[in-house]
Write a structure and sequence with these properties.
- The structure is a single chain.
- This protein is an alpha/beta fold.
- About 25% of the residues lie in helices and about 30% in strands.
- It contains five helices and nine strands.
- Strands 3, 4, 5, 6, 7, 8 and 9 form a seven-stranded mixed beta sheet that branches.
- Helix 1 packs across helix 5.
- The radius of gyration is 18 Å and the shape is elongated.
Length: about 210
């Protein structure tokens, strides 16, 4: 049995094609989805405990502080978007240039304990500040959960939330619009760096299937 973590923002079912292909090559294996909300660990602590109650995680990845704890198999990249309240005048454009955010409040991933924790977010932050004088950046969770979107939804119209295209439908009532920044966020699978033989064979097969799918 291989246990794959899943949540509202990181639904492992999106990779049903991958699990089916891997299980076809490993007939003795089964897959089980584990709701991350039911585990004892939040993020990034969950990375330190991979292989205990969850074997594999799926989703965006960019924490340099966990690079020595996990291996990452990239599947693709996500574009950055902005979550907006209904009626926001920014909605309706093909994409939102950062210059349109001057004077606006944008919620985005917190850079504590220090810049460099998520380098791609640091670069997006620098790009926004350079192109949108007067922008107000409000730090929020470094690792988003559905509660991040719930808190944002309760704010007054006019604020924006930096998001990713995979979360465009995270919460009904919010709009999502592409943000014209140069950066993208890699996404894929996170594995324990030192898996046991059972899990190692599964991971090796996952990587072969992903490579063939590219």
């Amino acid at each position: 049995m291989v246990r794959i973590g899943t949540s509202a923002l990181n639904p492992a079912g999106r990779l049903g094609w991958l699990w089916s292909a891997v299980l076809a090559l490993l007939p003795g294996y089964r897959v089980q989805y584990v709701p991350l909300e039911s585990t004892d660990y939040g993020f990034p602590d969950q990375y330190r405990h991979l292989g205990e109650n969850v074997d594999i995680l799926y989703g965006p990845s960019g924490f340099v502080t966990t690079a020595d704890l996990v291996d990452f198999e990239q599947i693709g990249v996500y574009r950055f978007t902005l979550a907006l309240h209904r009626g926001d005048p920014l909605a309706g454009k093909e994409e939102i240039p950062p210059s349109d955010l001057s004077g606006r409040t944008v919620w985005m991933m917190d850079d504590r304990p220090a810049p460099g924790t998520i380098p791609v977010i640091d670069r997006v932050r620098d790009e926004l500040r350079a192109q949108a004088p007067g922008i107000r950046l409000r730090p929020t969770d470094p690792h988003y959960t559905i509660e991040t979107f719930n808190r944002f939804a309760a704010t007054e119209n006019g604020d924006c939330l930096l998001s990713l295209e995979c979360w465009d439908h995270a919460l009904p009532g919010l709009l999502a619009w592409p943000l014209a920044v140069t950066e993208t966020m890699p996404y894929g699978l996170l594995f324990p760096r030192h898996p046991n033989a059972r899990l190692g064979a599964f991971i090796s097969t996952v990587r072969k299937v992903v490579a063939a799918h590219r």
